[in-house]
């Protein structure tokens, strides 16, 4: 396993409690849309065993042509040790990255794509949408639906309806409207449904989609294959 120690180039406050950390790109390092990595803080690999409390699985919210690895995360006042340390890091400080992989690349199957997310989960979808804008081939249209009760919606410069690009974006702040919209979207029985959020959020979305007749193979989760049976019917999740 290769570990890259890299510096923070820039920190942006996206909302009162969400930050994006822009990191250096190591030489020869690349990734595809929908990718995630393991982000580790100094001291995580000191001693006989790694300190897992200093490591987190994070989505990459940028594309390589943006010349930085973007990590967008929510940091509340009451937070974990990892988030507390991260909050105090400054430009020039070092972090480590390793194990980069994408479970949710943009599927180009001439099917409409629906991006369903909660809060900062939208960070996973940002590079997917940008990639679609750059190369829309074999993707008829994309619809994004995000729920965030704080109403501090993310990336509104990108996630806004653009009819010329066949892209539609909706933000809602309550579950009733959110699930009503999912039911309307799921009238497309051939679409591909990407879901990002907490495990409970995934399970609730999957339940609604399955009840509406969407098949498990049409549902994309940011989970490794070994975890899919925890969320989707086992006999159909291969």
TrEMBL record:
It comes from the Bacteria. Residues 1-107 form the FAD-binding FR-type domain. Keywords: Oxidoreductase. It is an enzyme of class 1 (oxidoreductase). Coiled coil: none annotated. InterPro entries: FAD-bd_FR_type, FNR_nucleotide-bd, Riboflavin_synthase-like_b-brl. Its EC number is 1.18.1.2. GO terms for molecular function: ferredoxin-NADP+ reductase activity. This is Ferredoxin--NADP+ reductase.
């Amino acid at each position: 396993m290769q570990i890259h120690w890299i510096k923070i180039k820039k920190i942006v406050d996206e909302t009162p409690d969400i930050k994006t950390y822009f990191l250096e790109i190591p030489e020869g390092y690349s990734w595809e849309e929908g990718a995630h990595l393991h982000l580790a803080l100094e001291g995580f690999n000191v001693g006989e065993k790694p300190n897992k409390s200093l490591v987190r699985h994070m989505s990459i919210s940028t594309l390589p042509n943006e010349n930085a690895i973007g990590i967008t995360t929510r940091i509340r006042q009451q937070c974990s040790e990892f988030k507390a340390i991260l909050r105090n890091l400054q430009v020039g400080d070092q972090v480590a990255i390793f194990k980069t992989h994408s479970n949710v690349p943009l599927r180009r199957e001439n099917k409409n794509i629906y991006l369903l997310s909660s809060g900062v989960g939208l960070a996973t979808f940002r590079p997917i949408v940008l990639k679609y804008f750059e190369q829309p081939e074999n993707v008829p249209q994309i619809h994004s639906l995000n729920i965030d009760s704080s109403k501090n919606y993310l990336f509104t410069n990108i996630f806004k309806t653009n009819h010329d690009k066949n892209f539609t974006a909706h933000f809602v702040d309550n579950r009733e409207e959110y699930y009503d919209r999912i039911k309307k979207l799921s009238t497309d029985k051939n679409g591909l449904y990407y879901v990002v959020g907490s495990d409970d959020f995934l399970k609730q979305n999957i339940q609604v989609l399955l009840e509406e007749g969407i098949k498990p193979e049409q549902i994309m989760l940011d989970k490794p294959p070994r975890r899919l049976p925890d969320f989707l019917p086992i006999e159909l999740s291969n």
